[in-house]
Amino acid sequence: MTSSHNYGVNTLSLQGGNHDATRNYLEVLIYLAVLGMLVLSLQLLLRMARTQMQPRPKYVKPDPLFKDFGKGQNWSWDWVMVFAVRSPDDYVSDYQRRFTLRRVVERLESGGLETKLYKSYTYDKIFCKIRCSADRLKDQAAEVCYPLLLDETQVVARIEKGRKKPDGEWKWYPRRAGWLLTGENEDGEKVEREQDNAIVDTEGQSDYPYQRFIYGKFDKRPDLQHPSVYVTYPASNSIFRSVDRLKLIEGIMEADPKKRGCNLQLKELLARGACLAIYPLHDDDELQTIQDRWLTPCDPPWAQPIVMVKDYFGEKVGMYFLFLGTYSTWLFYAAGIGVASFGLELLGGQYLTWATAACGICMSLWTTLFLECWKGEEARAKLEWGMTGFEETEEDRTEFEGREIHSPVTGLPDAYFPPRDKVKRILGSYIQIVLCIFYVSCVNAGIFYVHAYVSRYPLRNYVDFHHLADGPFGVPTVVTNLALALLIQWTNALFMPFATRMTRVENHRTETDFEDQLIAKVFLFQFVNSNGALFYVAMAQGPLTRGIGAKQPWKTRRFDCAPYCLEHVSYLLGTIFIVRVVLGNWNEVVAPFLTRLRRDAARRRGHDEDDAEYEDPASSNIRKRQVSPAEEQFEKDDYGSLDIFDDYGELVVQFGYATLFVSAFPLAPVFACVNNFIEIRVDGWKMCQNTKRPWPKGAEDIGTWESVLTVVAILGTITNSIMITQTSPAFTNVTSSYRLLAFVVLG
User: What whole-number distance in Å separates Cα of residue 378 and Cα of residue 315?
Assistant: First the structure.
């Protein structure tokens, strides 16, 4: 089979079979090169992680006056506030005058917190470290009814024992077999009857024994303390995990003075410039244990130390990594489907036809099974982590603004923002989003038009270069795909801060409302931006061109992708996916590695100046004060709610790429699986070494992201059904009515 184009010059004809085989080999080589790049990035990541995890001399000196293992107080400083050393000429606002360093420290100490002040290594900042005694933590936990995990042994012992009132009557009966209940018979005589009301799951209805994962509000009653009904954690010999201490201390700092609080709005202190930074301190010992279990070269996604992550970083971060691990685990099955389909497609002929159909059908079932599995994992995590009903107790955002009124329900002062004003702002935001989508669509249309124009007039030479200008693997197509892939990455990155600003203007009361609106905006734009070109090529380009070009084929023939529509989608999606993976690993692994090499080189050049930073404080030849861990962590990036939002957004976009057009590009789940295998370690490394410890937040689910995933899964089933029945060669000789019937059955 030779080229159908002839420009009136001598040409060198290429056999179609050899050309297809060469193209297949080149395609496989490109995919193998990308996988090799991912493996290399994993090696670089683990190399950096091992270097950063190397033990170093302890900075913190022994503190026997505070630490008391027997008392359950085996920890050090938990929070840090950083203040600027101001010169007399610096401008200071009224708010900053109200919350000077001295007044903030006075409020902290009035709330029962201990502080320690010292100047930074460069003498331009003052660090205020904060901690809290075990007794004060218990007071705060009792004040806010803080839920703690109950000890299983104590739960069984107390339930089986029962409890009596001061007058001797049962407050609740023992729940065991063989105990005696005193009562009266028909003659009024007191008799004892043997009871059997033990809690036994005879039918195996529950996955857990009744005593597991029971959370109770903390109570200081002596009978609950000795022996303690609450779980005691061995590292600190305390009923409080490190994440519990952080939450309770944050509550003390923000609580009303009437409740022994400090009356400090932490986010407002940051927003108005009274503080440079407020962040929890890392615990080196606990962090080292997590890293040793987390940053490993070969552990599968389901082997993550999720409980340790949740107990150190908080439930919100733990829920993200649980989702990432579950999604990555299920991608193993999807990758198997993709590899099998791709292998059959390489064989060509009838194998190609049915591989496409089978891949789309299997992946439609996969999305349904994955989402149902995740709902079960999410429900189990909510139960085991004690997060049931968390969102019902959520407080207002610090950024929420409203005029003060008296609540019509409680009569107490309350902030009020008119719903009509909020609706107007939301409508204005969505109008701007529609304009952004229109602009991006116009740019995409321009790229497609330039591609079609160039494809109409390929390079002229004495040798026929038509095989380089036509089809899905031609030079114009490759350049077009790269341009679209880069445009998608660039516009998605630009839209995120724009959407955040719009959502802040809308003035939402709670953090959940804020995140739900932000998710809706980001999903709407990124879905259209990331998949619009793919939808056009897969479903509109061929049929639209043939319909319009019936009367003027000489104008529209160059826009027709037939018989390459499915191949065009495959190469476009493959290019977008590969560019996304390459750029992501460059930004998250390679660029930090190169930056670290430059820092190491600079440190070696300035050896005499910087070598003393980590000298042992007990040494006699110290030349200068070492840099404290709090100062080191101050230089790291923040990891806030918007950072974890970005991480979820990346996974949702990837989920769309792996499911919406998998019939055309069956290797999409394979690249997603390999990328996520590395992403788990990249995100873990980022959390442990490259960012400050995040403020601990609770979470009972992944929020609106679950609804977004459901929408993408439904659209994936529809798009794959359309491609199989309308675009795939499997239905070439089938009438339109049978195609429609097949679409309804598959959908």
Answer: 12
22-74 residue pLDDT tens: 666 777 777 778 778 777 777 777 777 777 665 555 555 567 778 877 788 88
Residue 653 to residues 352, 657, 720, Cα–Cα distance (Å): 27, 6, 17
With tokens 């085996």, the residue in question is 74
For 660, which DSSP code? Answer: T
Q: Is 699 a residue whose pLDDT tops 90?
A: no
Residue 255 has what DSSP assignment? S
Among 495, 505, 580, residue whose Cα is nearest residue 529? 495
At CA 155, angle to CA 153 and CA 157, rounded to 5? 70
Residue 468 main-chain phi, psi, to 5 deg: -95, -5
What burial letters (b/e) apply to 156-181, b meaning 16+ CB within 10 Å?
bebbeeeeeeeeeeeeeebbbeebee
Specify whether the CB–CB gap between 649 and 657 falls below 8 A.
no
Of the candidates 246, 307, 311, the one whose C-alpha atom is nearest the C-alpha of residue 281 is 246
pLDDT digits (tens, 9 = 90+) for 135-183: 999 999 999 999 999 999 999 999 988 888 888 888 888 888 888 888 7
- 615 by Cβ neighbours in 10 Å (0-12 / 13-18 / 19+) ranks as middle
Residue 84: enclosing H or E segment and its boundaries? strand 79-84
CA 736 to chain CA centroid, nearest Å: 44
What span, in angstroms and rounded, lies between the C-alpha atoms of 606 and 610? 6
Specify the 3-state DSSP secondary structure of 624.
coil
- Alpha-carbon distance 104 to 264, whole Å? 8
Fill in the amino acid letter for 487. Answer: L
Give the containing element (helix H, strand E) for 614.
none
pTM for the full predicted model: 0.85
Q: For the chain, how big is the Rg over CA atoms in Å?
A: 32
